[in-house]
């Protein structure tokens, strides 16, 4: 079903579609119109990473050498020495067919009908020893991390379930813990489906015209969405939950006009935690177009593109592009400067930002690594003053991280504060997901793995 769904969007190259006909059963050359009546997609069995044991490539080679590969289908035991190795090889990073299908699928979803996508993957190795006819293979098989979520756009979300591939989508009853997790994650898709489709059907001026894109790119070419996608991919599933469950965060997300300042030592995970909060907001409000979300990731190596005008322009662009149609104020700002070939001033951009902010019932602004922002020409102070101004006038919610710097901490006096440290649980989760990179003599010894984990957790001290 996964391949069939992908293939409906992959109509650009029928030749490559034909490669998958043995898997899906028959060739369907569809088009993206199917997404016009879709309010969300939920996939089970999305490939994920291997945590221990053999690599996928090794398993494929073993399958090829096996005289007959047994597998179970519809209660019957069948044999196939060829199809399974060829099928599973599509999961190997760099496979051209999988890569092209994923790219085409992602572009379709980001096109005329951008919709939320949830991918649930297995966290436990699958029992493949019997499948390959060699019990020594045990329960090692999990596919590579590179194919984890199919798509990396901001409306894509993933979550692991404590199951292996073969029992991943099987829920015995409504009280099943895994089912409760799935239900909680996808409930916003279900409850907001009607509103989502009705709003999409009434939109007449979408942000897909060349003129609209030209105006948005004129504001700034900086795309923080690419950084968000990169950071969230680095997250080890389950890490950062302590922050989402904290009273400080719950108050911040549930109450307007709130500021949450999260300082931390270098290496404590501030950037990844920021990306986790961005993803949480994107998921929670994925079907609510009255909520605006904008974020920045400061980087001391990018001071040239992170001056005060560019920073506000980035926030303006993110809030403007998520409106059903390009705000009039943005078009007017562009028209004022187009003929003169001039750039808008700080005041021009900030006034336009205030107008667009007012279009939302609520706005979240997140800023990571304030300590890496430039202090020359008063950039940092002017930037913070602008954000606090938006908060005072429109009730915007402001989240920020920084190293422990006194001058920055003073700016947030009187606001909610939550210190960031790498929790022992997060460090252990990270190690669990990367132990497979160690030599095989380590991964074959549970006691040795535990000894290594305990030593590393003890040595991190919040980093």
Q: Explain this structure to me?
A:
Helix 10 packs across helix 13, helix 14 (308-321) packs parallel to helix 16 (346-357) and helix 19 (424-432) crosses helix 21. The longest helix is centred in the last third of the chain and has 16 residues, at 379-394. The chain folds into three domains: 2-194, no CATH class; 203-417, 3-Layer(aba) Sandwich (Rossmann fold); 424-460, no CATH class. The radius of gyration is 24 Å and the shape is globular. Strands 7-8-9-6-10 form a five-stranded parallel beta sheet, with helices on both faces. A three-stranded parallel beta sheet has the order 1-4-5, covered by helices on one side. Strands 2-3 form a two-stranded antiparallel sheet. The protein has helices spanning 2-9, 14-18, 21-24, 56-65, 83-88, 96-109, 177-191, 193-202, 210-219, 224-234, 241-244, 247-254, 270-284, 308-321, 328-338, 346-357, 379-394, 406-411, 424-432, 440-443, 446-460; strands spanning 41-44, 70-73, 76-79, 117-122, 156-161, 259-263, 291-297, 362-368, 397-402, 416-417. By secondary structure, the protein is of the alpha/beta class. It has 21 helices and ten strands. Residues 1-33 and 47-52 have low confidence and may be disordered. Strand 2 (70-73) and strand 3 form a beta hairpin. Helix content is 45%, strand content 11%.
